[in-house]
Every structure is written in structure tokens, then in C-alpha cells.
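Any chance you could type out a protein's amino acid sequence plus the matching C-alpha cells because I've never seen that pairing?

——
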Amino acid sequence: MKQELRVAAYAVCVRDERVLLARWVDRAGAKRWTLPGGGMDHGEEPVATVVREVEEETGYTCEPTALLGIDSIRRGWLRRLSVPGDFQGLRIIYEARITGGSLRNETGGSTDLAAWHPLTAVPELDRVELVDIGLDLWRERPAVGRSRLADPANG
């Protein structure tokens, strides 16, 4: 069984009761809102990852202000020739404040749109579960950095 681990860093940026989100486009073309962020390059510090990814996906420069928590997901999949695979995503979630830049959409990446959304409108958005987990961590600030919304089956 092929095992794959992906470490990524994401930002929860809230300003004036609005949250900054990026619209992720999956391989099949489906579009859902997510926190700005993404995969860590080998040798890169997680804080540098979140700063780079926020700029790439939204046009903004940011300053991480707090480590909110770490989330882990695990998914099985079938690879070519029906060989099973086991994916684990380790997601480091920071609170960050916008320090400069201007809102723009990413071109040639995994997202196609960036926008501020009222916090009250988030439940109606077509979004990935990471948005809810990140906002839960931001609101609740659990001592161990684990959202109550995290899937207990993931450990």
C-alpha cells in the first residue's frame, strides 16, 4: 500500500467580521471555498509556508499572530491499477493579520478566486471542512489545538 504524507499550513484571517477565503478547484473541476494556504516545501518553515501561500492565493501579505492548532485527515484511495493508497494530511492552522498587498485571484494554481466573506454567511458557502475547523479553532482556542469538529477516527 502506497503511503503519502502532506504537511500544509493555512491562515484564518478575520477582519471586520469577515473571513478571507480562497476558492479551491479540485481535479474534477469542482469548486469549494477553503482557507488560504497549502503545502510546505521541503526545508521550508511552516510560518514561511503560510505567508507564501496567502500571498500566492490572495495577493495579500500577512503576519501569523498565533498558532491555532493542528488538524490531521486521513483518506484512502485507489491508485492506478487498483492499488490502494493511504493519504494523511497534516494541516497547521495559524491566525494571521493582513499587513499589505491587495486582493487578487491566483492564476495557474489550485485556487481561482479569493474573497472576503461575512462570518455569518459561511454556513451557506460550498466549502471544505477545513474552513469550519479553522474557524472553530479561532473562536474556541482549545488548549491542545484540536478542534472539536475534527474527526475522532483520524486520531
